[in-house]
Amino acid sequence: MEVVYQRAERLIEGYDILARIGKGGMGTVFKAVHLDSGKLVALKILPISLAKDRNYIRRFLREARAASELSHPNITRVFEVGNYRGVFYFTMEYVEGETLLERITRFGRLTATEALRIAEEVARGLAHAHKHKIVHRDVKPENIIIATDGTVKLTDLGLAKRIDDVEQDITVTGQVVGTPCYMSPEQISAPKTVDHRADIYALGATLYHMVTGRRPHLAETSAKTMLNVLNKPLLFSEQDKVPQPVQELIWRLTAKDRSARPQSAEQAISEIRLALQALKRGVPLRLQVAPRRRKKLSVPLGWVVASLIAATIGALIAAALSAAPPKEALPLFRKGVALAEKGRWNEALDLFNQALRLDSSLAGAWNNRGTCLFHLGRLAEACRSYEIALELDPRNALLHKNYGSVLLALGRYDEAVKAFEEALRLEPRLEAARKGLKAARAKIAEQSK
Q1: Among residues 110, 104, 80, 100, which one has the least CA distance to residue 151?
Q2: Are 123 and 262 members of one domain?
């Protein structure tokens, strides 16, 4: 019997410990019986290293007690939070079943339909927590339990954070709170600013793990993993066989700019349902633009944006070909180009999607896909395609120009200005970017009147 096991059994009065069921950096979890009620519980004990930090303990007690007020079918209930002779602990509902990580390990990866069903239930739990101003901050397969009756439970809310807590989110070990593979970029770069949208990102990262069988952004070290989170898009291979609607949903959930993600768990649920519907019908996913960004283009602005996109499609296609797509993708790529030049956007889009299934690191294909989506009126999807292209090729002035154009069409004028300015910084002679910048500034001036 391990020392921590013996100490827990001896020091936590009122509980009979049956077995250790989990251990991590934030504590050890035991299966235990509450002696007075006879109820099975999961008992989590904080490590001594964290118990030495008074500020952390104060936050822990406040946050865990807040979590104990949550009651939802997709959240494991926190029953008791306490300190017995210097040992800090909390007890949770004990759920018979397996963790999502155990299920992924058992099957290798999950079907898209099952993964979306699980993601929807997790999102329901998150929506309830967020409604009570609690952010989980560590959503991952290890913290999701699938009960024997099929119910999905989000666990470890006892280590969550209140949205209005402005204290620094750093433990005594100097590590930011969360698990690197599933962390949002802002958890790494600006932990004090973390809000509920970090959980939306982690939900998308978890969905990626479910459908590919791989931890997202995993590298040799935590530091390299964090760099991947900050700088690289999530990619899929042909072997993953992940349906396009699910890929697009994951890219949106894991957008590096949190303002480009679903802005609430409820919105994430809606988009998960759209993906499920798309799978059933076998049609492409059409993600909705957030209401605050759904703006009708005036005719003059519409013409400006369309002309900006059209102005450099030929140059971008040529640049993309110079990036040497793999041999299998090249015929698809060229056919897509030919169809796009004829304005056959749906057919071209299908070919660019096929090329990306063969190699999702092709910046040019992402750009051309975005251009097709733009002309089909699917602006939110076009925006995400351009974002992925830029993550792969950040010094491409034409990509910044196209990104600025779709931002202009979405009414995101301040962001459009930045994109056009970056395009001109990289290529001062890019006249289309200059026109776009002028149009974006004019719209900002018009709004300020």
Answers
A1: 100
A2: yes
Could you give the residue numbers annotated as active site? Answer: 138
The rounded distance, in Å, linking the Cα atoms of 242 and 224 is 26
Pairing relationship of beta strands 78-84 and 87-93 according to DSSP bridges: antiparallel
For residue 52, give the DSSP letter.
T
Name the residue with higher pLDDT: 51 or 257: 257
Assess whether 108 and 242 both reside in one domain: yes
* Count: domains in the chain: 3
Cross-strand bridge partners of residue 78 = 92
Give the pLDDT mean for 318-338: 68
**Euclidean distance between CA atoms 411 and 442, whole angstroms:** 12
- Amino acid code (one letter) for 429: R
Identify which has the larger pLDDT, 120 or 70: 120
Single out the residue of 52, 50, 32 nearest to residue 42, CA to CA: 32
In a domain, 243, yes or no: yes
Residue 174 confidence (pLDDT): 41
Packing angle of the helix pair 397-409, 299-311 (nearest 10 deg)? 160
Sign of torsion over alpha carbons 432, 435, 441, 443: negative
